[in-house]
Amino acid sequence: MYAHFERHVYHRHSHETYSFGVTETGAQAFTCRGEAHTSAAGMVMAFNPEDPHDGHAADALGFTYRMVHIGPELLTGALADATGHRAGLPLFASPVVDDPVLAGALRALHAALLDDGATALRRDELLQATVAAIVRRAATTPAHAPSGPTRSRRVAGQARRLLHDRLTDDLTIDDLARAAGASRYAVYRAFRSEYGLSPSDYQRQLRLRTARDLIATGTPIGAAAAATGFTDQAHLTRWFTRCFGLTPGAYRRATR
């Protein structure tokens, strides 16, 4: 992602990947993990997978930024290289890191990924070097797995499973409550606590990700909207733009 925004406001969303970015000019303000943050020019943004966040320009001048989304499996190996042992996936405690070295590494990686003249080997080398640097300089100790699922986690997980299994169904909170064996209020509270989004926001995001994958593989936008539970193409386009920062048509052209 390489973009300049002045008035665009990202709806609260998350990514299934790690997301690392550099603010080039201006400043981006956002909330993440219940706190407000600002990434000014030269600062690095680091989001863990499924970190809910929003985003908008901090002032009328807007901001320009680069963002790279990297699958968790790539960071697993980098963590082993950086620490000498494989201890699990790294976590980033702060979504904003003021580190000029990391900012430079991310700029170089981003430029190579967009450069048609860069060789595959060069891209791979920069990816490995950048991931290793991010883990070494900014990651915290990986979180230990909990000893066992709490009731709240079980309730949230059962509700989440139903949302995945019945992607296009018009589910109600009562449907989720029956699947989880809990009250409506308990499901909503557990889901927000575990995933940082309401069940309806999570459902919409899941549909958006599925539609994005369909569009990338050549499915017409209208058909992708129908296949993922959106009312029509305009409905998909409106939410796609709010959460991903570009229209489905622009995304389709980029993937081609």
From TrEMBL:
Domain of life: Bacteria
Annotated HTH araC/xylS-type domain residues: 157-254
Annotated coiled-coil segments of the chain: none
Keyword terms: Activator, DNA-binding, Transcription, Transcription regulation
Pfam families per record: AraC_binding, HTH_18
Residue ranges the UniProt entry marks as DNA-binding: 172-191
Record SMART domains: HTH_ARAC (SM00342)
Domain HTH tetR-type: 149-209
SUPFAM superfamilies recorded: Homeodomain-like, Regulatory protein AraC
An example molecular function term from Gene Ontology annotations: sequence-specific DNA binding
InterPro entries: AraC-bd (IPR003313), AraC_XylS_family_regulators (IPR050204), Homeodomain-like_sf (IPR009057), HTH-like (IPR037923), HTH_AraC (IPR018060), HTH_AraC-typ_CS (IPR018062), HTH_TetR (IPR001647)
Protein name per its UniProtKB record: AraC family transcriptional regulator
UniProt source species: Nonomuraea aridisoli
